[in-house]
Amino acid sequence: MCPYCFSHCINHGSSSSGNKRYRCKSCKRTHSKVYTLNACKQSIAEKVTSLLKEGCGIRSIGRILRISAVTVLRKIKAIAKQLKKPLISFGKEYEMDELCTFVKRKSRKRWIVYAIRKDTKQVVDFTIGSRTNSTLKKVTDTLILSKAVKVFTDKLPNYRSFYRSLLPNSIHSTKYRGTNHIERKNLTLRTHLKRLSRRTICFSKNMVMLHACLMIYFFS
Ligand SMILES: [Zn+2]
Questions:
Q1: Cα–ligand 1 centroid distance for 148 (angstroms)
Q2: 93-219: what fold?
């Protein structure tokens, strides 16, 4: 039986390790019953995803699943590539905030800007970049396009001047406690993703991986 579409399979020679391979007659994909290498097993993607969300780093995932760190990186990139940002429904309220992290070296600060829906607390959009208007604009544009009723941000004066030019006054709010949910989410993120932990030597070595990990954490 085909593990992808459950149709009938026929013999398809053997693998380099001598195990029989099968080929599906309808979707034409091949598979094997016995896998010698852990990395080839079909359940490995799910395990990588759940370990990543539980605060394991790349190397610890590799050690637990007995696959190499390079394979873990490759798997994460492949999983993230298949994920898409969700469609946003019109006329909702949002909270928006920034999270500071480092990429490549501890002196290179990058900001994760993201927005959550106030009622479901689901992340709707995020972006990574320097602390500038153009980084914030990517997220605010999504919110404006989805006809946001209200967007809550924090009160810091530098952000206020940032947001003022990006969000129309009628939908922008800096109400006290308006960003409670997203600030709690920041703490959860820092506990669940190893690369976002504070005061450690763990941090992202490149932007592609940081983006891939966030895609998996937010949208899978
Ligand atoms: Zn099939």
A1: 43
A2: Nucleotidyltransferase; domain 5 (3.30.420)
SS (H, E, C) 117-156: ECCCCCEEEEEEECCCHHHHHHHHHHHHHCCCCEEECCCC
Domain ranges of the chain: 1-36, 41-82, 93-219
CA of 215 relative to ligand 1 center, distance in Å: 28
The interaxial angle of helices 157-166 and 133-145, nearest 10 deg, is 50
Q: What's the predicted TM-score (pTM) here? A: 0.84
Residue 2 and residue 26 in contact, taking contact as beta carbons nearer than 8 Å: yes
50 closest CA partner among 172, 183, 217: 217
Q: Quote the ligand 1 centre to 26 CA distance (angstroms).
A: 5
Residues with a beta carbon under 5 angstroms from ion ligand 1:
2, 4-5, 7, 24, 27
Place of tokens 């429904």: 89
How far apart are the CA of 66 and the centre of ligand 1, in A?
28
Q: What is the DSSP letter of 10?
A: E
Could you read off the pLDDT of 177-215 as tens digits, one per residue?
888 999 999 999 999 998 898 888 888 888 999 999 999
